[in-house]
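hey so i finally got around to running the thing on that chain from the lab meeting. sorry it took forever, my laptop kept dying and i had to restart like 3 times. anyway pasting the input first so we r on the same page abt which one it is
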Amino acid sequence: MTKKIKVENRFFDSIQYLIDSRKLDGADNIINQLLIMNPLDDRLHILKGQLHEARMQYDSALYQYDFVIFRTPYPTALDKRATLLIKVGKYKDALEDYKKAYEINYDYSYKLGQAFERINLKDSALKYYSIYFEHYPDSILQKKINLLSK
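ok and heres what got predicted. didnt touch it at all, straight out
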């Protein structure tokens, strides 16, 4: 079973690599064929959203992320949508997504802190950076916490 998961993860990593390398047509062809066979696969819809985002088709990217989130508030989809929402200047909507992701996984406290810092809510940023720091002590983050505390 673990071998199958590893192979599957490598496969999805390969599609991610195509997107990151701007080989978008190749990635699109693979994703479309896989979606025909697996129309409800969250990972494929997230990759399709990333593909649209790489093409600057933001509405289409949001549609793909929304599709996943509507079915299940999957933290990766919430993260991808929040990042895109920040890109288009919808900070409050992004905060809501990061809050939902944080409720599922405290690792998102760092990104939630970044989002609060971006809109200049330093006390809230400090709160979430501190939560992240409790779980992952890091000297660079400690410097940021010290700066925000002043």
